[in-house]
Write a structure and sequence with these properties.
This protein is an alpha/beta fold. The protein contains 8 helices and 5 strands; from the N terminus they run E-H-E-H-H-E-H-E-H-H-E-H-H.
Length: 178
């Protein structure tokens, strides 16, 4: 098995996705891997169940892309940008489809690191989560990171003994291959 050299981190700019980016940075350090960070903006003008069509203003998508690029650039400090040389990617469309399309276009992403949070309640039951769809269809392994405070997070449930997440992964990744 070859090593992990390229890590994709989908983000929606939430705290949980920022936590998954920090985790991916830790992995990138340990594995000497590069980062690709992608954000997908939902296209409100995608065809739906209605026959009416609304044409967006001419600069609508350019403005969204400009703002997204600014936010992607702000995810990492100057030092981190210099260290990881991340490829920052903006897409517009349905989030899981755009992420999977990017994985197939690149063809050499070795790992996806993403948060498990997202839609809740009935929306998740009806449509499924983005993480679920990526886990099921990605051509590479997907590491999902549960955010602090989500159900099942032992560090939240038992504050007296916080979990150090990096050590087991770092040790497993750096262990000699048999």
């Amino acid at each position: 098995m070859s090593g992990i050299k390229k890590i994709l981190v989908p983000t929606d700019f939430s705290e949980a996705s920022k936590e998954s980016l920090r985790y991916a940075c830790t992995l990138a350090d340990a594995l000497h891997a590069s980062l690709h960070i992608i954000h997908v903006n939902h296209d409100p003008y995608l065809p739906g169940g209605f026959l009416e069509v609304y044409v967006p203003p001419p600069d609508y998508f350019k403005n969204i892309e400009r703002e997204t690029s600014r936010e992607l650039g702000a995810l990492l400090s100057e030092e981190e940008r210099a260290k990881y040389q991340p490829k920052l990617v903006c897409r517009i469309g349905a989030t899981p489809i755009a992420i999977l399309d990017y994985l197939h276009e690149q063809g050499d992403i070795d790992l996806v690191v993403m948060a498990t949070h997202g839609r809740g309640g009935a929306a998740r039951l009806m449509m499924g989560s983005v993480a679920d769809k990526i886990v099921r269809a990605a051509p590479c392994p997907v590491l999902t990171i549960r955010g602090a405070g989500e159900p099942g997070d032992h560090a939240t449930a038992r504050r007296e003994r916080p979990v150090e997440r990096d050590a087991p992964v770092r040790d497993a990744c750096l262990a000699p291959q048999a």
